[in-house]
Amino acid sequence: MNIVIIGAGQVGSSLAASLATEDNDVVVIDKNAERLRYLREKLDIDTYQGNASQPDVLESANVINADMIIAVTSSDEVNMIACQVAFLLFRTPTKIARVRSVSYLDHQELFSKDAIPIDVLISPESLITEHVYQLMSHPGALQVLDFANKKVQLVAVKAQLGGKLIDHEIRDFADHIPDVDVHVVAIFRKGRAILPDGDTVIEVDDEIFVIASVQHIRVVMSELSIVEKPYKKIMIAGGGNVGGNLASLLEKERYQVKIIEQNPETAGYLAEKLDRTLVLEGDAADEHLLQEEDISNIDVFCAVTNDDEANILSAMLAKRLGARKVMALVNRPSYVDLVESGIIDMAISPQQITLSGLLAHVRQGDIVSVHALRKGAAEVLEVVAHGDQQTSRVVGRTLVELKLPPGSTVCAVVKGSNVVLPSNSVVIEENDHVIIFLSDKRYIPVIEKMFQVGMGYL
Questions:
Q1: What Cα–Cα distance (Å) separates residue 397 from each residue in 183, 197, 209, 390, 454?
Q2: Contact 151, 382 (CB under 8 A)
Q3: Which part of the chain is the RCK C-terminal domain (predicted)?
């Protein structure tokens, strides 16, 4: 595909890097010459310097031949105008824009062909809020992904000493929890992906990705690590879009929530908006304030301000003062691994979360969702099978007959309301949702092509 990316920030650069490895023709537009130079040297892509909301810049960047435009600058207005110009002047088929302002998002009528013709809106704050909420709902999980309208979940868990299946083969799941269907999708051991089989032995510190029906996830996690009590008391540092929306979600689920916000106006707004959340005006890195608010009895301290350093420092302080778990929103990729190797339990990467949201709309074929695993090292796709044996490479075939690329495996097949875990006898039928793990993203185009409907495949 010919794809034009507007914005060479962290999200735009990560998206360009991901798409450039998949046989796409990528052009990145940005006003910053230094960012563009870095991308040209690092990736096999074209770049163009300029303001992408201006018609002459889009024309010079060859938008007229683009299949898709993805606008992810830091300005909502530039993103929206670029999509509007691309449609009106160049009839670009697919327009995707990152829009952050709630003021715009609350008026969906703005985004139509008669107004601002954007096909897909990506709201990073909404994606981040949902991501953090899922972590709160699944104590001990490193990542929680929903598939097939939340019928099935894939969860990442770190194997801990004391877990029932430590030093056991994967096949022992069947003996430990015989009434639960579970499939171990992948194991990351010392940073390397392993596609496990029944003989694979689970070791301490393995990062294990398991998939099962939603109602069984907690019992599956209990086999791999020490069962954590459900979280109840939550403290949020930062009352911006993410912090405010997260508090709103949590208080509805009967969590006890406190939110610390330094800006008096924002704190006042939150106090009026939230019903059961205690809003505190102050600095989340104030040791006296944290102690006063009983930080040692907080189950999760979550720092989600716009300042990486403030998030990291306040989370470290909260952990030292006794908080059970601490999370920090970290924008800089170079900080993420550094942070998680220290006393902070989890670094939340907005760019990886946003990238997953974008990729589902970039992939070809009927791909419902795409999720990046291990900070983008691998991906899980949910794709819908269409056609019949004459028009499809997958419909009517058993899983063992599929010619999947190396490092790929089917995690589950969802047939209507039934979740079917992989076995050689499972036959893919039309409208099945097939969930596929790929340890090497270079093979994504192969998967896309497999599920595209055409004539004369047999």
A1: 21, 22, 26, 11, 16
A2: no
A3: 142-226, 368-453
Which CATH class name applies to 233-348? alpha beta
What distance in Å separates the CA atoms of residue 412 and residue 147, rounded to the nearest whole number? 10
Tens digits of per-residue pLDDT, 49-83?
A: 999 999 999 999 999 999 999 999 999 999 999 99
- Tokens 């639960």 label which residue? 180
> What sign has the CA pseudo-torsion 293, 295, 301, 304?
positive
Tell me the pLDDT tens digit for each residue of 151-186: 888 999 989 888 889 999 999 988 888 888 888 988
Q: Which CATH number fits domain 353-450: 2.60.40.1180, 3.40.50.300, 3.40.50.1380, 3.30.70.1450?
A: 3.30.70.1450
Q: What angle, rounded to 10 degrees, do the helices at 10-20 and 350-362 form?
A: 50
Sheet with strand 68-71: strands edge to edge: 46-49, 25-30, 2-6, 68-71, 94-98, 120-122
Q: How far apart are CA 453 and CA 325, in angstroms?
A: 47
Is CATH 2.40.50.100 correct for 2-122?
Answer: no
User: Distance between CA 388 and CA 427 in Å, rounded?
Assistant: 12
Q: What pTM did the predictor assign?
A: 0.84
Break the chain into its structural domains and give their ranges.
2-122, 140-222, 233-348, 353-450
